[in-house]
Amino acid sequence: MSQINLGIIGGGQLGSLLSIAAKKLDVHTIIYSDDIVAPAQNFCNEFIYGKYDDKKKFFEFVKKVDLITYEFENIPYETLNDMNKIKPVLPKPSVNRLIQHRLVEKDFINKLNIKTTKYAPVKKKSDLKSLEDFLPGILKTSTMGYDGKGQYPINKIEDIENLNIDFSKDYIIEKLVKLKKEISIIIVRYGMKSYEIYEPIENLHQDQILKHSKIPAEISNRILNQSKDWATRIAEELKYIGTLCVEFFIDNNDNLYVNEIAPRVHNSGHLTINAYNVSQFESHIRAVCSLKKVPLKKVSNAEMINLIGDQIIPYRKDIKLNKNQFFYDYLKKEIKNKRKMGHLTTLK
Ligand code: ADP
Ligand code: MG
Predict the structure, then answer these.
(1) CA 93 to CA 102: how far, in whole Å?
(2) CATH class for the region spanning 5-89
(3) pTM, entire model
(4) Pick among 3.30.470.20, 3.40.50.1370, 3.40.109.10, 3.40.50.261: CATH of 179-347
């Protein structure tokens, strides 16, 4: 087969790890990013810098590639749709449009009879006054949020008075779930009824940012089966191609809720690089490029910690790693507070 040229929109750590996986499969990667110092340029074959609304630059990119995928979901739908008219975009743009918007996403999940937290749209501050049933809750921007950005906890109705929030944007309010734990499912869909699924991953967040992931997740068999079943139904309904992540909440009464869907590879799946025969990144590339499906096999239990902000510094120096430890540096130029700089996976 001739060389595949895979276009990837986004140049962060997910783009980097996708590029590394692609190299192994002899797939050529061309990354488009609006960040001139995007770390993925250290790992891809070609790098194009341009804004996400620069049609001319995008066209240059589209011309170079056979197909297009993306490492983050906040790309304007119109942009993806325009590109899809020229070269295939996978997962397809309509999936992205649905998942970009928290309200549309939650409506979609509930229509499948899959449970989410209780939620309601909020367009203006006064809407909140009639939403006491949703408190304590979290007000979230409907679009563009990640790593807890654009989220405001509201404990009681009086808190609303002190809110200083830009209501030119749309929001939703979500009732706070009393979390026992959080898990995620990473599923790879190759085509109709053709899947590979990783075992549930248990996740710990600090300040709404993922800090720690591990397999096996300590959950009941019922939760294990229900989470896999829900993720499979979501992927099938979306006619999804590639790697998809579903994030779940488990409450103190062992109820399962879908938190959100990420139409892409996911931070909680970084441990699959070392813990499985095929990583979530390689699986994604195989699925979108129509390469052979490889059945997944776990090689080891594992845990992963994110190195956030200056936590990376000692690892960049000379921390001695054990044989079962794997350190990844995303090579981001600048260390910033709350920024994911790298991760460490330990096989157990
Ligand atoms: P992001 O898009 O930033 O990942 P999430 O909605 O996944 O936003 O929220 C990030 C984290 O904040 C969650 O993983 C969870 O730990 C916490 N969180 C968000 N919404 C709720 C909720 N309704 N109840 C309890 N915890 C929540
Ligand atoms: Mg999340």
Answers:
(1) 16
(2) alpha beta
(3) 0.96
(4) 3.30.470.20
